[in-house]
Design brief:
Layout (H helix, E strand, L loop, with lengths): L2 H11 L2 H13 L4 H5 L6 H13 L3 E3 L8 E3 L1 H12 L2 H7 L6 H6 L6 E8 L3 H9 L1 H4 L9 E7 L6 E7 L5 E12 L3 E8 L5 E12 L2 E12 L4 H11 L7
Length: about 250
């Protein structure tokens, strides 16, 4: 691939919405613009602009059907990017090796543990995706038993913000918020989670949905990150929050 074409491809891939479109095409194959636009909160013309960028980069091709012009993923540009990145494998493997000297060991931050919960639901994957992405549906299950969720606002797109308020049985209001990191409908949703009253503690929650016939395997990974204070404080916050995080 010529260097200028590689730049075009990398530029096209720099946008999270376009990466989400590529991920959807990789799963569903040839897809119409209407179907591609469904998971995103944007107009058909806006999605079409993203498709034109991907098409100009050679990452997708479009059908000639005048009615719906389906989009399909093209493998060659992705392989070219992979080949280019592969040249630097030796560098990143060497760079990410554990440091052997004492100074680097002192500088390394302690690894935080990740809590993974797996459940199988007797429901199709599209339905599970809807209850996680539709704020009206989310109000029905957001929070632990006995709590209500009068406010659930979800802007489900990469970089979109969410905000919710849970009301405890004693009437206390618990506000929380975060930002969506990755959206791959209907396969994966990843977002940060922060309590308004404890902004120094942040969690990254990643939910994956795997279809198994008419059932769905759902995995929820919750990782605490230290924004300030000590790692012990962060883990304690994560323990307290685990009883009140969104669940289903």
């Amino acid at each position: 691939m010529p260097a200028d074409q590689l730049s075009t491809v990398l530029s096209a891939l720099s946008d999270p919405t376009r990466r989400a479109i590529i991920a959807r095409l990789a799963i569903s194959g040839e897809t119409s613009v209407t179907a591609l636009a469904k998971p995103f909160r944007m107009s058909l013309p806006a999605v079409s602009k993203h498709l034109r960028v991907l098409e100009d980069a050679g990452l997708i091709s479009r059908g000639r059907d005048a009615q719906w012009r389906p989009a399909r993923l093209e493998a060659a540009p992705l392989k070219d990017v992979s080949d280019w990145v592969e040249r630097y494998r030796t560098f990143w493997e060497r760079s990410t090796m554990p440091a052997s000297n004492t100074a680097n060991k002192r500088a390394a931050a302690p690894a935080e543990k990740t809590l993974v919960i797996k459940r199988t639901f007797d429901a199709p994957r599209d339905l599970l995706w809807k209850v996680w992405s539709d704020p009206v549906q989310a109000k029905n299950w957001w929070g632990p038993e006995g709590f209500t969720a009068p406010v659930v606002e979800l802007d489900v797109r990469p970089g979109g913000k969410w905000r919710a308020m849970m009301r405890a049985p004693d009437g206390k209001e618990l506000w929380q918020h975060g930002v969506y990191r990755e959206i791959v409908p209907p396969e994966k949703i990843s977002f940060t989670f922060i309590w308004d009253e404890h902004p120094e503690h942040e969690m990254l929650i990643t939910i994956t949905f795997a279809a198994r016939g008419n059932k769905t395997d759902m995995s929820s990974a919750r990782a605490c990150s230290r924004r300030s204070k000590t790692a012990t404080d962060t883990r304690a916050a994560g323990t307290r929050a685990s009883t009140a995080l969104p669940h289903i």
